[in-house]
Design a protein that fits this description.
Two copies of one chain form a homodimer. Chain A has helices spanning about 1-35, 40-70, 75-105, 115-140, 145-170, 175-210. By secondary structure, chain A is mainly alpha-helical. Chain A has one domain: Methane Monooxygenase Hydroxylase, Chain G, domain 1, CATH 1.20.58. In chain A, α1 (about 1-35) packs antiparallel against α2 (about 40-70) and α1 packs antiparallel against α4 (about 115-140). The radius of gyration of chain A is 19 Å and the shape is elongated.
Chain lengths: ~220, ~220
């Protein structure tokens, strides 16, 4: 009974890790679509999002079954509930990659980004993918130190997000309001993607250490 | 046993409804702070947010206890899990009200909003508060028809959100990029607040009817 239970819990962790891989891939492709003005790639990301939603629904259903059949208590119960929360965050990461792809499609064949900010988005995209990959490894390895390092990487994302604001709000900005609005939203999508990756890692730390992660984020109001 | 269980489930619903009341009040005050350039009111909203976070933590703990002690299955299990999801959405609504209040504080004593868009935000604020109030009533009454009407009201929010973009992106916009960036983010905060209210209502519909709500939102990529 307990063995079957732990096997099922391990399968749930596998599903979560696979979802992390999917949303990391989605954000990687969406960023390339954005930087390279690649409509085919943008459409690919948009078409694939339903698979992420399906994976989340399946993960949630399996977690429900486990709760109903095994009625875990204490730490085991919290582990299953953490899976349900993490699946929600990861699905949201997929939505944010989808938003980036849709922004690239909306302005096609025009590029969304002026050349002067392309470098920032290449960096934010790189960090976002790395955060998703690390969240995947944290889930697979339950490495608490690795989970903590995600926070530092997310700080780099927040710094880029803030710096982009100073760039577009500067008097020397010459690309007008529509471009600034696109950049504001895109930057926020990357920043929120990072926040969710941190939240997934914190949930995993909690599962391993039993210490509850804090709620909310100090930086997501920009 | 079953009676105690239903009593506890009723208490959880009460807690959720009270949280809706709190975030509706927070958004009402944050909107007034924004429109009236009222720093004291903005600080009040910022100071109260911790209470919403606490209420969510308490609600989640109580839901965990209920799962651990009663080990509900089938529909009862789904109800408790819906409470956990709804509490997360409502706490996020509180964060979004907090972001509006922080935006008002950041620009003080300057108003964030040019006069030409104040009316739109007064409307979005009104709809946001109404959505939170309706979500509260849906939780208290389990009125499925009322829950469905929330979707229509959220459509009005999405229309305002889209219209604001056309206003700030128009060639006649004379308030510059920094103001457009503030408005872009603020408008998104209201729009997301509405999405979460819809999600809370959908979860409640599911609890009553047993039909699972859809994931994702078609409009949150703008």
């Amino acid at each position: 009974m307990r063995e079957a239970y732990h096997g099922q819990l391990g399968e749930l962790a596998d599903q979560l890790a696979t979802m992390c891989r999917m949303v990391g891939d989605a954000m990687e492709s969406a960023t390339r679509a954005l930087l390279d003005v690649d409509l085919v790639l943008a459409e690919h990301v948009i078409g694939e999002d339903a698979k992420i939603d399906d994976a989340r629904a399946r993960c949630e259903e399996d977690a429900y079954s486990l709760l109903a059949l095994q009625a875990p208590v204490a730490t085991d119960l919290r582990k299953v509930l953490s899976v349900i929360h993490a699946a929600e965050s990861i699905e949201r990461m997929g939505d944010l990659a989808l938003h980036v792809a849709k922004a690239a499609r909306r302005r096609h064949p025009q590029p969304v980004l002026p050349d002067s900010v392309r470098g920032y988005f290449a960096q934010m995209g790189g960090i976002a993918v790395e955060l998703a990959r690390k969240a995947e490894r944290v889930i697979r390895t339950q490495d608490v130190d690795l989970a903590r390092s995600i926070d530092d990487e997310d700080d780099a994302m927040d710094d880029l997000h803030r710096h982009l604001f100073s760039v577009i709000m500067d008097k020397s900005w010459e690309h007008g309001v529509p471009s600034a609005v696109d950049i504001t939203l895109l930057s926020r999508f990357y920043e929120r993607f990072g926040d969710h990756a941190v939240s997934v890692a914190k949930r995993t730390v909690f599962v391993v250490t039993g210490k509850m992660p804090g709620y909310g984020s100090a930086t997501d109001d920009l």
